[in-house]
């Protein structure tokens, strides 16, 4: 592995590398701190090594000077006793009222991309992989879970009201995959290697929603090779969880907004399962190469859809993905370097750089290569071989590309015709628009165009039958298409509610787009509904655009601002920071 510097870490990753991390935590809900001790086992990579840099709070490095010099190949264990800040950006501390059960407090972490340093003094670079053990002391009535295997639990010898949970992660992994949850959670077995965890109120609902987990795991193994992490559990998070899903090893975190009641949003699980290979086993060397994690993961996720459902579904998802890419490019601006597949992240906050670009420009590139090189089976063969070669390691875009040329050594002339610079280092849309099959999308496009073209006198022709012909993904796509058009006249939107009854739809992906359509049409009744959705759940994909949409309806800008300010203290720290920026608060 060539050591490269990490623009998102203060650590000198070329001087030393963490091999193992041993964590001891005492979880204090009153003070909202983790009191703890970490022992880092470091391998020295350079002679005359005596000082290491770590960053604890996000902005400031912690320098440790050793009382002796070490040489290359030696190991040292550094022990640090510390307490986290109540405002640590990796952590959200929830009061009982912010949980479903309303009785117990709850704590969860979200370390990706650069927040692990706020909870553990560590190198916090994805270029460094290590194993970890942990012991977590929590109040007896609560359960602790981590991104690792369970290693038993014992009464806390120093406090009879507490229990200590033990964890063991024997597979080396980057620090951004360390995760912890403490709350009143229960579990149900949903497969030979899977349980689903959540507060007891929705654990049965969750077990139903995610019943296809083992089939997805088996399908992924048939595509990408053996699953090396042992257990694959799911944890349904409190509503404020900022992402759709997070691929924490052995324990995927998932937003409750995927509980649609009909398994129609379980694609998120296929995505997080796929990270078990691309992301967790083969990891981006630094966050500039994030597309290697997400692009390949989306590619495998859609291959799972192809195997379990149909090629038509994969094609349909490709169409939806291209639209997501267009939205991101419009949002950032087509000249913004953050729309490059491989962006420069010096002086850039990874949370602010986050978008659909690495996912969908990444997927578009892989799909384009698939078409050039011989189709899905052939290209999946390459992806599997890439995984085998780089398993347990980290990779840069350059290394990925070199291996692509090696694997397809007989097709180098084809690869040389690809405009690599345009794909990787140029802002805006992908240079080639894939031609996807439109079998599943046609009905969505047709209905969207009927609404867009409809005159006042045509409105009577719409009936509830229009949407009965669409399945759930198609209804979402129909709404997404409408959002790409000019705002509909208010009369149209009101008619749409009358015939399709969309205000009472629970499916979060449908509801989110519907409420945006309504606010854009300046339907005042939708404003409180949009703000309700923006605050009752905190998935940033929904919350940020909903706040922005209301804010852009000038009559309600202040309403959006005030709603945000009233709720700010209870929001996830990263969500609060980004919504504040979106609403132009504090410069
Ligand atoms: N690893 C990501 C979530 C993430 C990325 C968190 C960067 C923090 C920083 C996860 O696998 C993901 O992509 N989630 C998506 C799911 C979707 C693509 C199915 C999400 O949250 O929407
Ligand atoms: Zn992902």
TrEMBL record:
<keyword id="KW-0862">Zinc</keyword>
<dbReference type="GO" id="GO:0005634">
    <property type="term" value="C:nucleus"/>
</dbReference>
<feature type="binding site">
    <location>
        <position position="275"/>
    </location>
    <ligand>
        <name>Zn(2+)</name>
    </ligand>
</feature>
<keyword id="KW-0479">Metal-binding</keyword>
<feature type="binding site">
    <location>
        <begin position="539"/>
        <end position="541"/>
    </location>
    <ligand>
        <name>a peptide</name>
    </ligand>
</feature>
<dbReference type="Pfam" id="PF17900">
    <property type="entry name" value="Peptidase_M1_N"/>
</dbReference>
<dbReference type="InterPro" id="IPR034015">
    <property type="entry name" value="M1_LTA4H"/>
</dbReference>
<keyword id="KW-0378">Hydrolase</keyword>
<dbReference type="Pfam" id="PF09127">
    <property type="entry name" value="Leuk-A4-hydro_C"/>
</dbReference>
<dbReference type="GO" id="GO:0008270">
    <property type="term" value="F:zinc ion binding"/>
</dbReference>
<dbReference type="GO" id="GO:0004463">
    <property type="term" value="F:leukotriene-A4 hydrolase activity"/>
</dbReference>
<dbReference type="InterPro" id="IPR045357">
    <property type="entry name" value="Aminopeptidase_N-like_N"/>
</dbReference>
<dbReference type="InterPro" id="IPR014782">
    <property type="entry name" value="Peptidase_M1_dom"/>
</dbReference>
<feature type="active site" description="Proton acceptor">
    <location>
        <position position="272"/>
    </location>
</feature>
<keyword id="KW-0645">Protease</keyword>
<dbReference type="InterPro" id="IPR015211">
    <property type="entry name" value="Peptidase_M1_C"/>
</dbReference>
<dbReference type="GO" id="GO:0043171">
    <property type="term" value="P:peptide catabolic process"/>
</dbReference>
<dbReference type="GO" id="GO:0004301">
    <property type="term" value="F:epoxide hydrolase activity"/>
</dbReference>
<feature type="binding site">
    <location>
        <position position="294"/>
    </location>
    <ligand>
        <name>Zn(2+)</name>
    </ligand>
</feature>
<feature type="active site" description="Proton donor">
    <location>
        <position position="359"/>
    </location>
</feature>
<dbReference type="GO" id="GO:0006508">
    <property type="term" value="P:proteolysis"/>
</dbReference>
<protein>
    <submittedName>
        <fullName>Leukotriene A-4 hydrolase-like</fullName>
    </submittedName>
</protein>
<feature type="binding site">
    <location>
        <begin position="110"/>
        <end position="112"/>
    </location>
    <ligand>
        <name>a peptide</name>
    </ligand>
</feature>
<keyword id="KW-0482">Metalloprotease</keyword>
<feature type="binding site">
    <location>
        <begin position="242"/>
        <end position="247"/>
    </location>
    <ligand>
        <name>a peptide</name>
    </ligand>
</feature>
<dbReference type="GO" id="GO:0070006">
    <property type="term" value="F:metalloaminopeptidase activity"/>
</dbReference>
<feature type="binding site">
    <location>
        <position position="271"/>
    </location>
    <ligand>
        <name>Zn(2+)</name>
    </ligand>
</feature>
<comment type="similarity">
    <text>Belongs to the peptidase M1 family.</text>
</comment>
<dbReference type="GO" id="GO:0005829">
    <property type="term" value="C:cytosol"/>
</dbReference>
<dbReference type="Pfam" id="PF01433">
    <property type="entry name" value="Peptidase_M1"/>
</dbReference>
<dbReference type="InterPro" id="IPR049980">
    <property type="entry name" value="LTA4H_cat"/>
</dbReference>
<feature type="domain" description="Peptidase M1 leukotriene A4 hydrolase/aminopeptidase C-terminal">
    <location>
        <begin position="439"/>
        <end position="583"/>
    </location>
</feature>
<dbReference type="GO" id="GO:0019370">
    <property type="term" value="P:leukotriene biosynthetic process"/>
</dbReference>
């Amino acid at each position: 592995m060539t050591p490269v510097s990490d623009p998102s870490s203060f650590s000198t990753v070329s001087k030393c590398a963490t091999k193992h991390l041993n964590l001891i935590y005492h979880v204090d809900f009153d003070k909202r701190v983790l009191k703890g001790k970490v022992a880092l086992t470091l391998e020295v990579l350079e002679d005359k090594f005596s000082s290491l840099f770590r960053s604890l709070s996000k902005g400031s490095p912690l320098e440790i000077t050793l009382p002796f010099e070490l040489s290359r190949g030696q190991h040292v264990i550094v022990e640090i006793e510390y307490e986290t800040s109540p405002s640590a950006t990796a952590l959200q501390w929830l009061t009982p009222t912010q949980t479903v059960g309303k009785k117990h407090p709850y704590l969860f972490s979200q370390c990706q991309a650069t927040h692990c340093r706020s909870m553990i003094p560590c190198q916090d670079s994805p270029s460094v992989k290590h194993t970890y053990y942990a012991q977590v002391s929590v109040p007896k009535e609560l359960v602790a879970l981590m991104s690792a295997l369970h290693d038993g639990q014992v009464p806390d010898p120093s406090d009879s009201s507490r229990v200590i949970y033990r964890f063991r992660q024997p597979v080396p992994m980057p620090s951004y995959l360390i995760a912890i949850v403490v709350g009143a959670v229960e579990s149900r077995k949903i497969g030979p290697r899977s349980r689903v965890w959540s507060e007891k109120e929705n654990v049965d609902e969750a077990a139903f929603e995610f019943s296809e987990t083992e089939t997805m795991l088996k399908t992924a193994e048939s595509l990408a090779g053996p699953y090396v992490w042992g257990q694959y559990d799911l944890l349904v998070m409190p509503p404020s969880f900022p992402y759709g899903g997070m691929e924490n090893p052995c324990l995927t975190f998932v937003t409750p907004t995927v509980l649609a009641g009909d398994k129609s949003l379980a694609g998120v699980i296929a995505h997080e399962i796929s990270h078990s290979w691309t992301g967790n086993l083969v990891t981006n060397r630094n966050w500039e190469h994030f597309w290697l994690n997400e692009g390949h993961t989306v590619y495998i996720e859609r291959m799972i859809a192809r195997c379990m459902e149909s090629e038509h579904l994969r094609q349909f998802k490709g169409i939806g993905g291209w639209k997501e890419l267009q939205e991101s490019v419009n949002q950032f601006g087509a000249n913004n370097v953050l729309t490059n597949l491989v962006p420069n992240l010096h002086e850039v906050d990874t949370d602010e750089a986050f978008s659909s670009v690495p996912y969908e420009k990444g997927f578009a590139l892989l799909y384009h290569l698939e078409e050039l090189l011989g189709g899905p089976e052939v290209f999946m063969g390459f992806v599997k071989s890439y995984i085998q070669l780089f398993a347990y390691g980290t990779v840069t875009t350059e290394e990925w590309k070199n291996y692509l040329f090696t694997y397809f050594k007989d097709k180098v002339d084809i690869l040389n015709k690809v405009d690599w610079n345009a794909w990787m280092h140029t802002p805006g849309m992908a240079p080639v628009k894939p031609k996807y099959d439109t079998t599943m999308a046609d009905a969505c496009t047709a209905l969207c165009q009927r609404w867009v073209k409809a005159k006042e006198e045509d409105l009577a022709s719409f009936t509830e039958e229009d949407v009965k012909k669409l399945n759930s993904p198609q209804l979402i796509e129909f709404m997404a298409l409408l959002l790409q058009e000019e705002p509909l006249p208010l009369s149209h939107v009101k008619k749409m509610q009358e015939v399709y009854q969309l205000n009472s739809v629970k499916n979060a992906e449908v509801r989110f787009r519907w409420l945006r359509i309504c606010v854009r049409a300046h339907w005042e009744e939708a404003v409180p509904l949009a703000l309700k959705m923006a605050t009752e759940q905190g998935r940033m994909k929904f919350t940020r655009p909903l706040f922005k949409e209301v804010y852009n309806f000038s009559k309600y800008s202040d309403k959006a601002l005030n709603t945000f300010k009233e709720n700010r203290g209870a929001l996830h720290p990263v969500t609060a920071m980004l919504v504040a920026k979106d609403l132009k608060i504090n410069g």
